[in-house]
Amino acid sequence: MTNTFSSLRAAACLCLALCGLAHTQAQAQKSFPTRPINVISGFATGGSVDVLTRVVVEQMARDLGEPLVVQTIAGAGGTIGSARAAHSPPDGYTLVAGSSGSNAAAYATYEKPPYSPDDFHAVGLLAIIPSVVIVKKDLPVTTLAELVAYARAHPNKLSFGHPGVGSSVHLQCELFKQVAGIDIQMVPYRGAGPLMGDVIGGQIDGACDAAPSSTGPSQAGQIRAIAVMGDRRASSMPEIPTTVESGMPKLQGAAWVALFAPKGTPDAVLDRLSRALDSALDSAEVQQRLAKLGTSTPTSAQRGRVYSEQFVRDEIAKWDQVARAAQVPKQ
Fold it and tell me: Quick one: pLDDT at residue 30?
């Protein structure tokens, strides 16, 4: 009898505990947010990550009923801003717009990153930024196959630039070398501006670059875009085939921006933020504005917390492998 009573009492306590947890989560979901949300941008104001973030969170605010205030904390490839977010209270009122650089490539290229992947929950992907292989306008190639053949015929003669050692675009260029099996000289630059200037001027033979910054020079005939690195064409240059279409399916390396919250943020709050993000991405206005910026909104299959968490883990592993194979020095 005593054992039966104890079992019933234990079951009742468990039921009350579960009901209490469900009630707490429901209350958090119902009441959140009650004040403005701070969204850290680890990149310079006016840069691609900053602009994309502002477009999307502005729409999210309409769904959430509270402002999402973008705070710029730029420096060190976005890692300073991500570090600030990682050590913020896990209450949903501090988020960070992380990127393929700050929240994937950084783990492979920094000796001691100021945070780890476990310090964050992924709320969801915000935007995908296609990367493209470009060459100077007088290089005698027009397709990816021709470029690879030319590089193999002239080993270590072609010079390709990238906007900084350890950047996500740098690792994309290293992936190009590895997948194509070619030997080309890699030239680091301090940003995309000087890099593009030298491709236009013919000082270097080509580059791996973000499609948005290559679109104008390509359309003006100042450079030649060869292939978009992925399985989706870039909205800003729809006439340029993808690497998948060009017969190189393993060469996929788009940059991306995602919203992250500090570890320990309640699931109910994360779910509310994720739904608001999905709603923003479904907005025709947001889709049109992102398309004009040369970026893509995540597809329906690329939505949600579960997908985003796995996607980020896969990206970390992928770029770590590429960096190790290329022997990229850690900063």
Answer: 58
Pick the CATH number of 33-129+256-326 from 3.40.50.620, 3.50.50.60, 3.40.50.2000, 3.40.190.150: 3.40.190.150
User: For residue 299, which amino acid is it?
Assistant: T
- For 10, residues 6+ apart whose C-beta sits below 8 A from its C-beta are none
Residue 281 in contact with residue 272, Cβ under 8 Å?
A: no
Do 33-129+256-326 and 131-228 come out as alike in CATH topology? Answer: yes
Q: How much is the pLDDT for 166?
A: 80
**What residue type is 26 in one-letter code?**
A
Query: Residue 243 carries which DSSP code?
Result: T
Domain boundaries defined on the chain: 33-129+256-326, 131-228
pTM for the full predicted model: 0.85
CA distances from 266 to 22, 91, 131, 206, 326 (A): 12, 7, 35, 47, 39
Average pLDDT, consecutive stretches of 10 residues, N- to C-terminus, the chain (331 residues): 44 45 47 96 86 96 97 90 96 96 93 94 95 96 98 96 86 95 92 90 94 91 96 92 96 94 98 98 94 90 95 96 92 80
- Structural domain 131-228, CATH architecture: 3-Layer(aba) Sandwich (3.40)
Beta strands in 250-321 (DSSP E): 255-262
